[in-house]
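question for whoever is on the cluster today: can someone run the full assembly for these? three chains, 1053 residues total. i dont have access anymore since they changed the login thing
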Amino acid sequence: MLNQFVTPDLQPAAPEIFLLIMSCVILFADLVVGQVQRWMMSALTIITLVGAAVLTYVTMDGQVVLTFSNMFVDDLLSDFLKLVLYVAVIAVVIYSRSYLVARNLEKAEFYLLVLFSTLGMMVMISAAHFLTLYLGLELLSLSLYALVAIDRDSARSTEAAMKYFVLGALASGLLLYGMSMVYGATGTLEIGAVAQAIYHGDANKTILVFGLVFLVAGIAFKLGAVPFHMWVPDVYHGAPTAITLFIASAPKLAAFAMTLRLLVYGLFELADQWQLMLMMLAVLSIALGNLAAIAQTNLKRMLAYSGISHMGFMLLAMMSGVVGGQADPFGTLNAYSSALYYSVAYVLMSLGSFGMILLLSRAGHEAEMIEDFKGLNKRNPWFAAVMMVLMFSMAGIPFFIGFFAKFSVLLAAVKAGYVGIAVFAVMMSLVGAFYYLRVVKIMYFDAPVDTAPIEAPLDMRVLLSLNGLAVAVFGLFPDSIMMLCTTTLVRSL
Amino acid sequence: MEALLAPIHQHVGPLFGPLWPLVWNLVKIVVIIAPLMLGVAYLTFWERKIIGWMQVRIGPNRVGPWGLLQPIADGMKLFFKEVLVPTKADGWLFIIAPILALAPALAAWAVVPFWDGGALADVDAGVLYLLAITSVGVYGIIIAGWASNSKYPFLGAMRSAAQMVSYEISMGMALIAVLMVSNSLNLSDIVRAQDQGRFAAMGFGFLSWNWLPLFPMFLVYLVSGVAETNRAPFDVVEGESEIVAGHMVEYSGMAFALFFLGEYANMILVSAMVSLFFLGGWLSPVGFLPDGIWWLVAKLCAILFIFLWIRATFPRYRYDQIMRLGWKVFVPICLLWIPVVGIWMMSPFNIWK
Amino acid sequence: MEFKTIIFYVLSAVAVLAALRVITARNPVHAALFLVLCFFNISGIWLLLQAEFLAMALIMVYVGAVMVLFLFVVMMLDINVERLRQKFWSYLPLGAMVGLLMVAEMGMVLSGKYFGLDAMPGQTMPADYSNTKELGRLLFTDYVYPFELASVILLVGIIAAVMLTLRHRKDSKHLNPGKQIAVKAKDRLRIVSMPVEKDQPAAGQGE
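^ ran it for u. tokens below:
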């Protein structure tokens, strides 16, 4: 009996294994050198992420490899997403350090939880099985709940963590319920086999659609799409900004992967059903996100609502892949690669804007109100310019990365025949431009309220500048990244 | 054995009709429990004697020849005493608690094999059953502590809950190594697995038993067993100098006696487990002597003696030291030794093929 | 009626009654203990289904560890049950609705045409079939990846719990047992050689 088992091929999962081992090493290192050499923790974390990136890059061969009894998939899509993920997490680690040090929050646990949530995201990105998808999600969520509460003496953070935990647990429950329904209908948890079973018509449609509703609700919860967005502003606002930076950036990649794996890889045959649900989510998110953001005076809350609308755009792209239940190969590909492009662009912009808040914060001062950016141009023209680039890009003003992200999504929607929705989205973006431009306006035309010099470590300044530059420069060559996204998806679908 | 019992089945069986299996099992249970209770009674006597000798006293010597009737006298005394229930105690739970303390210690014997094939229930998941049943034992103490509605018992109960849960972990982990080398969860198979090996073939069976290759686990299990039964030096649960008698403060008469019986029955049980897991159960230490239940009894007595010896020798641990020993010493030792055994089993030097 | 069937009904009846008492008991400690009773009976039902590993694991993990710690906490809290019960009647309709919905769902699952019991025939296992062994084999072969992931999730749970609760109080007295044990007599005790004093005056005289 035992001889039937073939030891799984560990090579495709090498980055995950490396990350896990290094996390344990850091856990031990903290025990040994912990209190004395704090800098080692962040250095080790960055080394770990770079090592994982190298491993991912070296083992990237464009083949679709399944391992661990078909529970783990290594394809170009997962490699691409993971590489972006490492970059995002490294940026998070570098941006957060001085903020955490100033608030006495820089514990080894922060780095460990960031690494473990990265592991969770990697597992989600590489999931080929409902079980691993769910476990990856739980690993990510559990680490995030703890991270939000990292400042345990702050009542606001604790409240945010509690809210996040309760709602997140509810969402996991919904997702699991949906998964169990799909399992009941198809008799398998393997995403590929689920798709096969549905394709052959072996599955009961009623139960599948019943399960699908719960799956989409769970996904919407995790993405923070309306009407499952209640947690987003409170958690973004309540969490320490360094943690908000993390929540608002990297997990969106994993959420994109989850959506793609569940709906496109697993339940593609039900596209005409989930399309409708995604459409509702997308329209509501874009509308509510943009309208509610106008009323905000707190930049973190404003960015939270803008994040909701960005997720709406991402969903808009996801739903545009299929026209009337028929997959047109070119249109489908175009839609999904624009969704991928949008997620990557959003992560870049989100990293930059929350990075700016971190840059202006210092011990005893949170630069989270929009007023804190007043007259930034007079205080530091360079970073004012970086912020301007980020805001322009988020607003979708031409020739920044955000513009092309929105443009390609809208194009895909129009191609799929959703002209009305595309027009609606454009209108809402125009509304949205108002609050982004307001930030730019007060940076350049208002007198500074806060005149303290901006102090930040060199690595953070450099990386933040690079981040701003990337948003601007990638905007000049949108085709190259779009090509990359398309190739990735072609080789992985 | 079966042949000896066949006439009984044949002649007595029909008298009970379809209820015969039930009756027969009850008979078996009585056959196990009765000597056990006798053993418990004389363990208390033996304990007092041994500690007396170690402290250069005589120990009990008044009742009966050499004091041999002392436990019977004690039992009679407790039996005729009134069971007092404090006014504000939780009546039902107060009465149930001592029963819960004793019952698991007796129930666990169902899977213990006394000789090859000589177990009441020779089940595959015997080790799991033992672990499950012994983990329930803590309820007696917790409920007693809470139901008494009094401070000292409550403190005792809290201490006991934390201590039992902590030491169960190191106990379970020590067992993992045993399970790895015996490749079974069946207690009889675990004993039989110890009968194999180079030394056993040479006639020195005792060198093939698990205690030698798994020596650290043996020690961890033995010490955890002492802690699990709340015996000195881990008896903070009833530490007289701090909390009078812990959970037993409010109890009197037979209710109090049940706690005592439970503690001693647990001691015997833990000794039996150590004998089975590490000392070859019913196996004879040397090739030229036959295997049999007497070896199990002898090993059991030796370990019980160690229990008493420890009690007479060591001062009581402080509560935080107990927790430290469990979590920071035993658990890491187990965590280290399990991979060592794993690598050993995978290496060419594997002795458990 | 078969003997097993009788046992099943007894176990189920006690389990249901215990579960009812969990939610109706006025004292939280009693409620927790009834939950333990309920677990015991469910474990018995699992044994009847020949799922001995699940039965034992339920007792070992839930009864032996989780509920002990749970009781530990519940006993130390001074819970005002009356206050918890204040809104009982206003929440009852919603709770009852959810309960009924779940009963209906269970009914659908067990008897409906989609997941009905006849759709999943009972399997007869060979006599030497060991549930525990099979579970172990699957967990460490086909499901090793999710199994490891689950362990990482538990590790994260530990780290998070320690991070959120461990506080080094400045006023707590701390001992290093390693140092304590390593102490030698000469670290603490100084033996001084002193000359014998002579001409000791006779004590207690002259007063």
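summary bc i know u wont read the tokens: Chain A touches chain C through 37 residues (CB under 8 Å). The mean pLDDT of chain A is 87.
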